[in-house]
Amino acid sequence: MELTKLAGDCRSDDCPAVFRTDTGNIAIQGAIIERQTPDGEAIVEISPSLLKEAVRALGW
Questions:
Q1: How far apart are CA 30 and CA 20, in angstroms?
Q2: Is this model's pTM higher than 0.70 or not?
Q3: Which of 10, 33, 46, 60 is the most exposed place for a label (fewest CB within 10 A)?
């Protein structure tokens, strides 16, 4: 899967970030929140400012 970074909280790839996938979906990188999820899924936490930056980058 190819990811295009839309927004991030720092310049490296080890920080919370929002990406567009090559299938047109959105992928989120953040701190894992400990909560039961289906196999292969996780809930992650990002800041509201990061989400706003991603929305602006998408032109929404």
A1: 15
A2: yes
A3: 60
